[in-house]
Amino acid sequence: MFRSLPRFEYLAPKTVKECIALLSQYGQKANVIAGGTDLIPQMKWGEKKPDYIISLSQIPNLDEIQFSSPTGLKLGALAKIGEIESSEIIRKHYPILAQAASVLGSVEIRNRGTAGGNLCNAAPSADMAPSLLVLGARVVIVSQNGEKIIPLEDFFVGPGKTILSNHEFLVRLEVPPMKPNSFGEYIKMGIRKTMDIAVVGVAALITLDHGNNTCEEARLGLGAVAPTPIRAKQAEGVLKGKTLNEEIIGLAAEAASNEASPLTDIRASDRYRRYVIRALTRRAIQQALHKIKP
Amino acid sequence: MEQVIELRVNGQIYEIEIKPWRTLIEVLRDQVGLTGTKKSCDEGHCGACTVMVDGQAVNSCLMLAIEAQGKDVVTIEGLSKGDHLHPIQEAFVTHGAVQCGFCTPGMIMATKAFLDHHPNPSEEEIKKALAGHLCRCTGYAQIIEAVRAAADKMRST
Lengths: 294, 157
Description:
The complex is a heterodimer of chains A (294) and B (157). By secondary structure, chain A is of the alpha+beta class. Helices cover 32% and strands 24% of the residues of chain A. Chain A is built from 11 helices and 14 strands. Chain A is globular. Chain B is built from 5 helices and 5 strands; from the N terminus they run ββαβββαααα. Chain A binds chain B through residues 1-10, 33, 35-37, 40-41, 44, 53, 55, 57, 82, 105-109, 111-112, 193-195, and chain B through 1, 3, 19-23, 26, 39, 41-45, 47, 50, 53, 56-59, 61-64, 66-67, 110, 113-114, 128-129, 131-133.
């Protein structure tokens, strides 16, 4: 596919303020670019044709990965997927995020793609979304009206659509610390072992009581099986307060499968996806539980 | 709309007049004249266009040339020194890892970026490192052997 990119003017603001001014001026005719791994192909396919490309690359500190107790994680929108995968901070405090980052795309994609871009592209299968959803992440959006912080759950509106207007952009994510005695797992199932869009993605975050007997809280995130990435709240309710044996986990998997609304598409049928949701939900919960430190 | 930018490729500075919508691979091939990097899927799936930017493997078809300013770009041409092949190139040749050769520059640049940080990789790690690369000819086995052999050679020198 040897299509040239359509023509555009390239702008590289040096500050957040400058970027906001440019977005206010060009809004409808502009696209923000981070790593470009989604935007560039979309422009080649004729899906997006901005007259202006506003690069975030010259704005300092947008790629920071910072953690402090008790606030938690500040993850800049421009933090690369590869940086998240290898970050000591993420591996220590949010291992499920490092796991999700490690299965996204390829080495080359991870060296350019960003967490912010993955979320703003808002594919229903976005690999960073289920984990960030179960971690209770919030997005920080800036515009001429200042900063607004909203839960990630409310950020996605539909396939490829977020609540962002074209005068705003996402500047960072904020993630509260994981509760003590919590264990997470993200499983992505695709047609190929790698370098493929998820057919189903499941993130499980289980918080156990002190005796490691009962589940204090469970969070389940599903990707690629609804118009947006979603939390499977009924399935979460099945697990809460219970001892997680095979029967309870099976009931939760069933509930998760019913909460999803998968499509039949080129990769899989809706029936197959429901089947896979059940299997991956069980597997993600069991693998999260295997991480219990004695 | 054209802009003059400075690109550092294989240690050399090039001053180039570019249009902002040109990707790095287009500028490398059409303007810098380094055609070793190959355009294949042009969408970031196949890895044929892989070059190193600041020591990291990236798909040059997905990067705007203008965003490579101030960065160190290394292409396949930057690996060999005159007639002397880099050990990775040597290993690819001797292990039958090159048939039509179209995927080869991308495979080798990804291998270089990988071995620079993982000098003694397992087979699983090699496969993961090259997961973004497609080859229609070899069936990958010889490529993986070549990477292992190159790693061994590079550790012993």
